[in-house]
Specification:
The complex is a heterodimer of chains A (about 325) and B (about 240). With about 325 residues, chain A is mainly alpha-helical. Helices cover about 40% and strands about 5% of the residues of chain A. In chain A, the strands form 3 sheets. Chain A has a two-stranded antiparallel ribbon with strand order 1-2. In chain A, strands 3-4 form a two-stranded antiparallel ribbon. In chain A, strands 5-6 form a two-stranded antiparallel ribbon. Chain B contains 12 helices and no strands. Chain B has helices at about 1-20, 25-30, 35-45, 55-60, 80-90, 100-105, 105-120, 135-150, 160-165, 185-195, 205-210, 215-225. Chain B starts with a helix and ends in a 12-residue tail after the last helix. Classes of the chains: A mainly alpha (about 325), B mainly alpha (about 240).
Chain lengths: ~325, ~240
């Protein structure tokens, strides 16, 4: 821990009374739909983790062509599905290894788990419907129609990856492993220090990411080119789970549990594009869609009421280019 | 359409500028704007008695001597070159030739020479040659491309391109360009990280990556980047 971090930790200790009051809230079990059941993953033996077939196993026929198209979209939605994408993100930013990596929300596990009931919209969703949610929220774009080429290609790629996986059963490696509750309530200021020391060299101090040769290399974590308020990653819990397991690239699980929660809190306390389900007021939208301790939507941070429309509007980006 | 594109471009430029102002490494380029003559003096004429100028090995255009492992400096960020000279001077990087030389440079001279070389365009030796890969090169290239583009996830090793850019062009001030760099130099550095011989601030990442790689994989990655050009035949422009 650096001296700066220690300073903030010290300040955090002053807030310990407040934290103690708040901590009971953190003991309530999370909504089951926020993160798929990854408890199994945490305890499962490595050898039990499903291995998707290699790229070389994609057949050279009509089906294989659709699978390849799905993989292309997955890696570069900005190129191959750009009419549905409104930001700088790619599927593979949150599903590492192009959707193959266990404990990084792999597509083979997701495919095997659908159709599934989601409390996010209160109904049983087909896999294609689930993909629509990704485009609408995580990609801050437009949902492709059910049966569209884009969804069929992504579904085919996921189906290919899931070949041999148990369907409908619990499967190790699904989603992100559930992170234990933090010793202290997540803290914005401590998170800012974690961010500066571990994240900013890639995602930039302003969170807007970095490009090379005109291509996004490090995705925007907030601001107009990031995911919108309806995305799963806007949940501090989901983000903490992902960050601890997968970030920084190359040094996974190197942050402490507390650091992961703190930096997730920091990231999810920034401005980002509005929730497309916006109900006319931030308060009403929070009450209906964000009424959880894991969402900063509708909270005031540094004088800004998070979630107000046009706070981080992607200008001219998502209307056809 | 045109209007809309212009608007998009302007918006992006504004964002990039905002990013530059918020990110010290970018802002640095402004602060460090070197006096052109001083950079040239250090790089080409030499400023220490008995010590040859940088150009005698790296070339006055900074293209290096790739075949004998002398790296290309052209096109690297000024921040990156200056940092490396500082690391040589304070022992975070070690090299028989660079260490004693870097120690003689003042901070102002380091910045000046960094500015000089960063302003030179980086050439890619394979670009436009139409040369076909030899069979051994082709085998290494293919494995290197697989690692560079996809990583070795079952060993928790992410793809090189995730930090150095899909085209190996480098990112920002901290992540150097690899495309067209000297193969021998790249192998030497990857080996050095693996042997814990570089102690630079972001070196923990490269050390972690190299620990996941065997020597054949290190050579393959180096071959891939050394040969990578804008020519699709050598992986340039592949996604």
């Amino acid at each position: 821990m650096s001296s700066r971090a220690r300073t903030f930790a010290g300040l955090g200790a002053l807030a310990v009374t407040a934290a103690a009051l708040a901590i009971s809230g953190w003991l309530v079990p999370s909504r089951p739909d926020v993160v798929p059941d990854a408890q199994a993953a945490a305890t499962a033996q490595q050898s039990a983790i499903f291995k998707p077939p290699p790229q070389s196993a994609i057949p050279n026929n009509k089906f294989g062509a659709v699978v390849r198209e799905g993989e292309r979209i997955f890696r570069h939605p900005d190129i191959y599905a750009k009419q549905y994408v409104g930001n700088d993100l790619r599927c593979s930013n949150c599903h590492l290894g192009a959707g193959r990596l266990a404990d990084s929300a792999p597509m083979w596990a997701a495919y095997a788990a659908y159709p599934a009931y989601r409390s996010k919209n209160g109904k049983v969703n087909s896999f294609q419907q689930r993909l629509q949610g990704c485009f609408r929220f995580s990609m801050n774009g437009k949902a492709p129609k059910l049966g569209s080429k884009t969804l069929i290609a992504l579904e085919s790629y996921s189906y290919f990856l899931a070949k041999g996986a148990p369907i409908g059963a619990k499967i190790a490696g699904r989603g992100y492993p559930k992170l234990p509750k933090p010793p202290l309530a997540p803290d914005y200021n401590r998170g800012a220090v974690v961010y500066a020391e571990n994240c900013s060299m890639c995602h930039a101090a302003d969170g807007l990411g970095q490009k090379s040769d005109g291509h996004v290399v490090f995705p925007a974590l907030w601001g107009p080119d990031s995911f919108n308020w309806g995305a799963g990653m806007g949940s501090i819990k989901n983000a903490a789970d992902f960050i601890h397991q997968n970030m920084p690239l190359g040094l996974p699980k190197s942050l402490t549990v507390q650091q992961a929660w703190d930096v997730a809190m920091f990231m999810d306390s920034q401005v980002r594009p509005e929730d497309p389900r916006y109900l006319g007021t931030v308060a009403a939208t929070r009450a209906k869609f964000h009424n959880t301790k894991f969402s900063m939507y509708g909270k005031k941070v540094n004088g800004t009421l998070l979630g107000e429309p046009d706070q981080a509007k992607p200008e001219g980006k998502d209307n056809g280019k | 359409m045109t209007t809309n594109n212009d608007f998009v471009v302007k918006t992006r430029v504004t964002l990039v500028l905002a990013a530059a102002m918020a990110f010290p490494a970018f802002a640095y380029a402004g602060v460090a704007a070197p006096k052109a003559n001083r950079g040239y003096d250090v790089a080409v004429k030499g400023v220490r008695k008995g010590i040859p100028a940088c150009a005698s090995c790296h070339g006055s255009d900074g293209q290096g001597r790739l075949g004998v492992g002398i790296p290309r400096l052209a096109g690297l960020s000024a921040f990156y070159i200056d940092s490396q000279l500082r690391y040589f001077a304070d022992g975070k990087r070690v090299n028989d030739i660079m260490t004693p030389y870097a120690k003689t440079l003042t901070p102002a001279e380091r910045r000046a020479v960094a500015g000089y070389f960063s302003a030179k365009p980086a050439k890619r030796p394979m670009a436009g040659t139409g040369r076909l890969l030899k069979p051994t090169e082709a085998t290494e290239f293919k494995l290197g491309q697989e690692i560079a583009e996809n990583g070795i996830w079952h060993r928790e090793m992410p793809a090189c391109g995730l930090c150095h850019g899909a085209t190996g062009a480098g990112v920002g001030a901290e992540f150097p360009a690899l495309a067209g760099q000297s193969r021998g130099y790249l192998i030497g550095q990857l080996d050095a990280w693996k042997a814990n011989g570089r102690h630079t601030p972001l070196g923990k990442f490269m050390r972690a990556e190299t620990l996941h790689m065997n020597h054949a994989e290190i050579k393959a990655v180096a071959t891939y980047y050394a040969l990578l050009s804008d020519n699709p035949k050598y992986g340039g422009g592949s996604k």
